[in-house]
Each structure stands twice: as C-alpha cells, then as structure tokens.
Amino acid sequence: AQKVTQAQTEISVVEKEDVTLDCVYETRDTTYYLFWYKQPPSGELVFLIRRNSFDEQNEISGRYSWNFQKSTSSFNFTITASQVVDSAVYFCALRHTGGFKTIFGAGTRLFVKA
Amino acid sequence: EAGVAQSPRYKIIEKRQSVAFWCNPISGHATLYWYQQILGQGPKLLIQFQNNGVVDDSQLPKDRFSAERLKGVDSTLKIQPAKLEDSAVYLCASSETGTLSYEQYFGPGTRLTVT
C-alpha cells in the first residue's frame, strides 16, 4: 500500500526558531519521487522540492533543508530561522510508478508568531 | 508565464443541485489533474487527463461526478447531483507530462459549499 503520514497536525513556533516537519512514507516501489508543497492561506499549492528514490543526498535551499532517509522511509523538512511568512500548511507527497498517481499526506499546519 | 486558472473561486449550492468548475492549465502542459481537498486533509486525485484522454479516474465517484477535457486544453468538472459531503476545495493542476518526475502546478482552487 502507498501511504504518506504527517504525524504533526499543527506546529506553533516563535519567529527565528528552527522547525522540522516530519514525513514518513510507505511504498513497495523501488522507483518513486517525494515532494513537498506549501499551501498558504490563499489556497494555491506551491511546489518546494522533488527528490527521487535513488538520490539520498540532503538538500539545502536558503532557509529550507530536506533530509531524505530511505532506511527509515522519511523525508523531513526543516525551516531554519522561521519567519511569519512561513505560516502555511505543508504537504508531503509520494508519486509512485503505478499509474503515476500522487498521494498526499494530511498536511502539517505551521504557525509562526512574531 | 500564466499559471493554472480556475473559476469560479467560490460556489455555494444546495444539495441535489448541479455545479460545474472550469480549469485552464499552463500553456503546453499535456497532463491535467483534478483533486478534491476536504478541510483538514490532503488533496485526493479525482481524475487525470493526458491530452484529452483519461489516464486515471479510479477515485472519481462516477455516479455523480464527470469531467471532460475537450481539445486537450481546458477542462470542466461537474457534480450532479451534489451531496453535503462534496463540500471541499476542488484543485486543478497541470504538468508538462504525466511522467513520474514532473512537478504539478496548482491553480487557486474552487471552494464548494453544499448546504
């Protein structure tokens, strides 16, 4: 079965704190892609990152970083020095070879307080 | 580059009425997706088109939902008759192809309230 679990429903931090959003996935495929999307209050999902199953290198983009560990089936997302504009719902997603369907987690709502 | 356009942005209808949503994908994107996002949940794929052909509609409630993509560009999603549980945001997305690696670009969504 294909599944994405985001155990944290809501996280609240104060500006400038670091925060990590957890994502655990299940799949029997050996080839797949993992994604993170941001959904601000406006409602439009914004693509943040794509990672394929053969590339376990961690990635950093500005204040954002991602830690992909195949051994634990996790793809965690860290925001360093959070800002109020980071307040949004963040979704982790899995795209597998069978039918190319994208499966989303339930999302983690992040509140960053000034 | 223009993004994915959707209309209307909001719609309120009574149960048993019908409703239609429209989506215009990014120019040149062959693949179009309709998702249903119920409050507090992640998006769930309803149907995926590759050009004007259906690739996956396994989670589309076909007794009441229908979708078409004439000429492989714009698409409409219809619900007839609507039920209370159809209240959700309906998201349209497009990608260059339907292959595994391509990210999807999402529209702003249509928020449907069924009373």
What is the chain-wise order of helices and strands of chain A?
Answer: EEEEEEEEEEEE
Instruction: Give the class of chain A from helix and strand content and strand pairing.
Output: mainly beta
Main pleated sheet of chain A: 6 strands, mixed
User: How many H/I helices of chain A?
Assistant: 0
Helical fraction of chain B = under 10%
Number of helices of chain B: 0
Name the shape of chain B in a single word: globular
Structural class of the helices, strands and pairings of chain B? mainly beta
Question: Key terms for this structure?
Answer:
heterodimer; A: 114 residues; mainly beta; six-stranded mixed sheet; four-stranded antiparallel sheet; 12 strands; 0% helix; globular; B: mainly beta; 11 strands; 48% strand
Briefly say what this structure is.
With 114 residues, chain A is mostly beta strands. Chain A has no helices and 12 strands. Chain A is globular and about 45 Å long.
Written overview of the protein:
With 114 residues, chain A is mostly beta strands. In chain A, 0% of the residues lie in helices and 54% in strands. In chain A, the strands form 3 sheets. In chain A, strands 2, 5, 6, 10, 11 and 12 form a 6-stranded mixed beta sheet that branches. In chain A, a hairpin with a 2-residue loop joins strand 7 (59-61) and strand 8 (64-69). Chain B is an all-beta fold and 115 residues long. In chain B, strands 2, 4, 5, 6, 9, 10 and 11 form a 7-stranded mixed beta sheet that branches. In chain B, strands 1-3-8-7 form a 4-stranded antiparallel beta sheet, with no helix packed on it. The A-B interface holds A 4, 31-33, 35, 37, 42-47, 50, 52, 91, 93, 95-97, 99-102, 104-107 and B 3, 33, 40-45, 48, 55-56, 58, 89, 91, 93, 98-101, 103-109, 111.
Topology:
The complex is a heterodimer of chains A (114) and B (115).
Chain A: E1 3-5, E2 10-14, E3 19-21, E4 24-26, E5 32-39, E6 46-52, E7 59-61, E8 64-69, E9 74-79, E10 88-96, E11 102-104, E12 108-113
Parallel strand pairs in A: 2-12
Antiparallel strand pairs in A: 1-4, 3-9, 5-6, 5-10, 7-8, 8-9, 10-11, 10-12
Chain B: E1 5-7, E2 10-13, E3 19-24, E4 31-37, E5 44-50, E6 53-56, E7 65-68, E8 75-79, E9 88-95, E10 105-106, E11 110-114
Parallel strand pairs in B: 2-11
Antiparallel strand pairs in B: 1-3, 3-8, 4-5, 4-9, 5-6, 7-8, 9-10, 9-11
